[in-house]
Specification:
Layout (H helix, E strand, L loop, with lengths): L6 H19 L3 E5 L5 H16 L2 H4 L4 E5 L2 H10 L6 E5 H9 L3 H9 L5 H6 L8 E7 L2 E3 L2 E5 H11 L3 H10 L2 E5 L6 H10 L8 E6 L19 E5 L1 E2 L4 H10 L6 E2 L7 E6 L19 H17 L9 E6 L1 H8 L4 H4 L4 H4 L4 H18 L3 H7 L10 H20 L2 H11 L6 H12 L10 H9 L4 H11 L5 E2 L9 E8 L8 H9 L8 H15 L2 E9 L5 H11 L4 E3 L3
Parallel strand pairs: 1-8, 1-9, 2-3, 2-7, 4-6, 7-8, 10-11, 12-16, 12-17, 13-14, 13-15, 15-16
Antiparallel strand pairs: 5-6
């Protein structure tokens, strides 16, 4: 006799049967798959089902099944798992939309000419784009002789504008009678709204299948929960990742999507530590208020790690991931403690929005690594791809000398010394954006009696930071670390997870989120912030397979503690002695 299905397999089969019924009936649906449910598995099953049913019809009509993904990594995975079937057009949303709009050249020129972000360039080009060809290949805005290059951020608004036209909508449907959207909750909210307005429920529109989980929406411009009277909701009530001890907590956190585990007998553990008994002076300020000072935060983390080792945890990076939902402690542990105090906005360095940071992390550091490894082709590729002309042996010697000096200075110099060295050597060249910022700082008149602009003051402060902190930041951002934070963990899973929760981001206050979760009603003004915090907390807590531990370095109110007791159980909550 075949083995009986596990509870998770039964729940998964129910969801698949409901999905297949929608596909057979031509009804649009939303498959809500909680953490560990196997969302991608369901998407692949849908694609294979559709290919099998339509393998003769679609080629005759020159049609394909569209599968829209959120990242190139997801696109490649789905393509591989469907054997790169020619009936499946799998692309990111931007690439998919560009495939739809690039043939509407006249309309695109008209739309671009009225976009606010293009006005200055269009004036410089003579007030009109004329008959220039619109292209999307470079990823940045430019107007050249005969061509206009679109920015990444232009593609979706242009597509949304074209959706107003019935002819465009007919062409979309003729090409793609079935459109599946992966990670729907993170898909651009305006784009989803246009789909709801112009396609869902309208006669002759494509069948849409939305796959995702609105509790895992952690990107700012995503649509979140998608609701529409013509979209059938299917809840996938399975969890193939975590043991029952952890899933029970997730179910209390989210009772409306109860999950069933694969092995009800599998052993695991949850522990929650808080620092409510610490009597010293906590940090103050809008972003840091209520958190432990960095030294005490470090001590708390070390004490919890010692507790977990006694409990049988293997803290090696292969078995355990530490998720830092507190930036100053993360920076301290990682070795770039000066950066949070240097930049006004944390995104400047965590998302490489600062030009200096982006150049150092994405170009200079990989180039130095390649030079040390004697991979000179890779070195120039990291610096932009173009190999400079080497007219003589002396040219090669100059490059070798410049890079040797740079590699050594990275260990002892400041950011400013690295920049000045590159300006003097010109091997490699600094990007123009950095040259301009440095020039603005050098030429700023400190005797004129005017305040230095914040961006220049920030740069001046950054120049004093030891460059080894930039190297440490790069190591963290590249994932060569036992620590992760925020968006980097989405979709990942680990044997054991320790989540360290504190303050430091202006958009996150998990103590307040726990208070609101314990209230009967969340005020409308706080709903968006509550969901942003709740979703990231849920994502972090749903990563482990066997063991989960939480450490709160921020002060928790009695109401917040009651929420933790309800979700995790009073018997697992421990007061950490510092």
């Amino acid at each position: 006799m075949p083995d009986a299905e596990s509870p998770a397999e039964v729940a998964s089969r129910r969801a698949l049967e409901a999905m297949y019924a929608c596909l057979e009936a031509g009804e649009s649906f939303r498959l809500e798959a909680g953490a560990g449910a196997g969302k991608t598995y369901s998407l692949i099953k849908a694609l294979r089902f559709l290919v099998e049913r339509n393998q003769r019809i679609l080629p005759r009509r020159s049609q394909k099944i569209a599968c829209i993904t959120f990242t190139n990594v997801a696109k490649d995975e789905i393509a591989a798992r469907t054997d790169r079937n020619p009936l499946v057009f799998c692309e990111t949303n931007h690439a998919f939309c560009w495939s739809l709009i690039n043939g509407f050249q006249k309309s695109l020129r008209t739309l671009v000419e009225v976009m606010p972000t293009w006005q200055e360039r269009i004036v410089e080009a003579g007030g009109s784009l004329g008959g220039r060809v619109i292209e999307y290949s470079l990823g940045h805005r430019s107007i050249r002789e005969g061509r206009v290059s679109l920015h990444h951020d232009d593609i979706l608004p242009l597509t949304i504008s074209l959706m107003d036209h019935a002819k465009f909508r007919r062409i979309v449907t003729d090409r793609f009678p079935i459109i599946l959207v992966d990670e729907y909750q993170d898909t651009d909210a305006d784009w989803i709204e246009a789909i709801k307005t112009h396609f869902l429920g309208q006669p002759g529109s494509p069948l849409f299948g939305f796959f995702g989980d609105h509790w895992q929406k952690i990107y700012g411009n995503g649509c979140g929960k998608l609701e529409h009277p013509d979209v059938t909701e299917i809840g996938k009530e399975a969890n193939f990742r975590s043991v029952k001890t952890i899933v029970d907590c997730l179910n209390r956190m989210r009772p409306e999507l109860r999950q069933f585990v694969e092995d009800p007998a599998a052993v695991g553990r949850v522990r929650v530590f808080h620092t409510g008994n610490w009597t010293g002076q906590r940090q103050t300020g809008a972003h840091w208020g209520g958190d432990l000072p960095s030294p005490e935060g470090h001590d708390a983390l070390e004490r919890v790690k010692a507790n977990l080792v006694e409990d049988g945890w293997d803290l090696s990076p292969s078995d355990t991931k530490i998720l830092m939902l507190t930036h100053r402690l993360l920076a301290s542990e990682q070795g770039y403690s000066s950066l949070p105090a240097t930049f006004r906005f944390k995104e400047s360095f965590t998302k490489k929005e600062d030009a200096h940071i982006a150049f150092f992390v994405d170009e200079l550091e990989p180039a130095c690594d390649a030079f040390v490894a004697r991979k000179y082709g890779a070195m120039f590729e990291a610096l932009g791809g173009a190999v400079p002309l080497m007219r003589s042996h002396a040219d090669k010697a100059f490059w070798n000398e410049a890079m040797t000096g740079l590699v050594a200075l990275r260990e002892t110099g400041t950011v400013g010394q690295i920049v000045d060295y590159l300006r003097a050597q010109r091997r490699p060249r600094l990007p123009e954006a950095i040259e301009k910022r440095e020039r603005d700082l050098r030429t700023f008149d400190r005797t004129a009696g005017i305040e230095m602009p914040p961006a220049l003051a920030e740069l001046e402060k950054f120049r004093e930071v030891p460059y080894v902190e930039v190297k440490a930041l790069r190591s963290y951002l590249d994932g060569h670390s036992p620590f992760e934070t925020k968006h980097g963990v989405k979709g990942a899973e680990f044997e054991n997870v320790l989540v360290v929760i504190g303050r430091g981001w202006n958009q996150y206050n998990f103590g307040e989120m726990l208070e609101l979760a314990g209230a009967q009603v969340v005020p409308a003004a706080k709903q968006a912030a509550f969901e942003r915090n709740r979703n990231l907390f849920y994502v972090a807590c749903s990563r482990p397979k066997r063991r989960l531990a939480l450490l709160f370095t921020q002060q928790l109110s009695p109401m917040a503690l009651r929420t933790l007791e309800h979700w995790f159980g009073a018997d697992v909550i421990e007061t950490l002695r510092l």
